[in-house]
Design brief:
The chain is of the alpha+beta class. It contains 13 helices and 13 strands. The chain has helices spanning 2-10, 14-32, 56-71, 76-95, 99-103, 132-142, 159-169, 182-195, 200-207, 212-216, 223-240, 280-286, 350-355, and strands at 111-112, 117-120, 126-129, 246-257, 261-268, 273-279, 293-298, 304-306, 316-327, 331-338, 343-349, 363-368, 374-376. It starts with a helix and ends with a strand.
């Protein structure tokens, strides 16, 4: 065996040997790479229809409208009035305060600019961490000469007046008036935090809600949402148990047996079909059967990339877009996001990467042979 390996290696040119060395180095590094971050339901839930809310993009559009309105003041009186309302909006937008809580704040004692904290007192006391940039904006408004004489009471406004001004801003961003209430903006911030993978218990405390059930009312998990979450979790488990960079977890959809080999088709949670060919002995040892879960792994050097539509013998052929390219002296590591959302890592020669003119966003085909797929239970 040793003689056979020596004979094969001697038949390779220097560039091939260097690429093999790069692949071995990549394999060793992947063994020590940290596992991917744990999946979180934040990106996999829908909001019940009865919960009015705005998306992050809509919230940002409303914020810009408020800021333009404030900056457009033409008199000292108008600047003072609009500045106070701009502060109220920021407190609800980023702190998810109830309107009454925001209007009860003492701007001298309840805003800690050193630590970027807003201190809410009363029935649901809590300390809220704010983005430093937002705290800087509020400080700039409060320290404006137009606020002289109001400090300590800058936020003490009539609730009806505040709601009316909020409703008026709806026309600037082409939204229904009922979506620009302080209550909707508060709920929207809670949903935004959940989407940002902040744990539900922390969001509950941030909102000052007495029960996590109230916070959970923002969430609805469809069957598709649940499937995506479970798929992400199973894939993470598979990645932790193997040095292969690519792992697809799914259900065995079909098994075709031959005399010596067995073809196995796996259907992943995202609808991807991965075909593997293994020996009949391996299939028997794994006790494979249709309907059970399995994980298909493919090492990065076995993944082939193509920018054309030429016929190929590879059974597994998927389309996607280049996510990133890391060029080394000999090798290149290419991450590809498949059309259904999975990410595949390929290690190819740097020369091939340059010839293919790979760059983020470029359409690409990902191929690997059925014999390159390793199944695990």
């Amino acid at each position: 065996m040793q003689e056979e390996i020596t004979r094969l290696v001697h038949g390779l040119d220097e560039s091939a040997l260097r690429f093999i060395e790069a692949c071995i180095r990549h394999e060793r590094e992947s063994r020590n790479a940290p596992p991917p971050p744990p999946p979180h339901p934040g990106g996999h839930f829908t909001v019940p229809e009865n919960v009015k809310h705005l998306t992050s993009e809509q919230l940002d559009a409303v914020a810009k409208s408020f800021l333009d309105w404030y900056k457009g003041a033409v008199s000292t009186t108008q600047s003072r009035s609009r500045g106070r309302l701009w502060l109220v909006f920021l407190l609800i937008r980023y702190g998810a305060l109830r309107l009454g809580e925001a209007l009860a704040l003492d701007d001298r004692n309840d805003l800690n600019f050193t630590r970027s904290l807003v201190i809410v007192r009363g029935q649901n006391p809590r300390e809220l961490q704010f983005p430093e940039a937002i705290m800087g904006e509020m400080r700039q408004v409060l320290e404006s000469p137009v606020m002289f004489g109001l400090r300590g009471e800058v936020l003490h406004l009539d609730q009806g007046y505040v709601r009316r001004i909020f409703y008026e801003r709806a026309k600037d961003v082409d939204l229904p008036k009922d979506l620009l209430s302080p209550r909707v903006i508060r709920h929207s911030r809670g949903i935004e935090l959940l989407r940002g993978e902040v744990p539900l218990k922390i969001v509950q405390q941030f909102l000052g809600q007495q029960s996590p059930t109230l916070t959970a009312s923002y969430l609805h998990f469809s069957r598709e949402d649940a499937r995506q979450i479970v798929h992400s979790h199973l894939r993470r488990e598979a990645m932790k148990k193997t040095s292969a960079r690519n792992a697809f977890t799914g259900t065995i959809n079909r098994i075709t047996r031959g005399d010596l080999l067995v073809e196995v088709e796996i259907l992943t949670g995202t609808g991807l079909k991965v075909v593997a060919v293994i020996t009949a002995e391996s299939a028997d040892n794994l006790e494979l059967r249709e309907g059970i879960n399995t994980t298909a792994t493919i090492k990065a050097p076995w993944v082939i990339l193509s920018t054309g539509d030429a016929p190929t013998s590879a059974r597994n052929h998927f389309s996607g877009k280049v996510q990133s390219v890391q060029l080394g002296e000999i090798e290149a590591e290419v991450l590809v996001t498949l059309d259904e959302g999975s990410t595949v890592c390929a290690v190819i020669t740097a020369q091939s990467a340059r010839q293919l003119k790979l760059e983020p966003g470029k359409p690409i085909s990902v191929l690997f042979k059925a014999f390159a797929v390793v199944l695990g239970m």
